[in-house]
Input
Amino acid sequence: GQNIDQPTEMTATEGAIVQINCTYQTSGFNGLFWYQQHAGEAPTFLSYNVLDGLEEKGRFSSFLSRSKGYSYLLLKELQMKDSASYLCAVRGPYSGSARQLTFGSGTQLTVLP
Amino acid sequence: DSGVTQTPKHLITATGQRVTLRCSPRSGDLSVYWYQQSLDQGLQFLIQYYNGEERAKGNILERFSAQQFPDLHSELNLSSLELGDSALYFCASSVTGGLNTEAFFGQGTRLTVV
Output
């Protein structure tokens, strides 16, 4: 099975940088995803890591260390619209042609003016 | 727009009733996932189908069932509904093959059991 841990809440100021951590224990690993979810809306894909290292995508970057079972999402130049829940998700072992995606409980980020 | 369509958007029903939620995946996606999201919980994986066959089961109650049809749309059936079943139900789809294939989510069905 898989166990994913993220902080429940974080607060940051507009224009600042925030790092949201995610740790996981899994019986099989085939990638880690970060999703953003505004209240009552569908999660939207932000980033994907399968190899160790940093993936950068505009104001968002995601880092993975497979040996440590650790990832973080870095958000730069925070904007008010970044206030949302950030979900860490781990893709499990290969099973046929499908892989299960297991989500953490999410980190609710509040950006203050 | 993710390309994943869920109907209905909102559903209000009474305890003990049965409802069916529908999901049309993105064109070409063979995998469909169902998730439940309650107010105080994260996304809970319920069940996954691939090309019509059940592939993985998560925390799905026996009162719940799902299927994927030949045209790849999927339905989630919830029966003997309880107040605690009130939640957002999301469907997601993904392509098979490749490593960096993210799941695309529909807008969800908000179920309220009264």
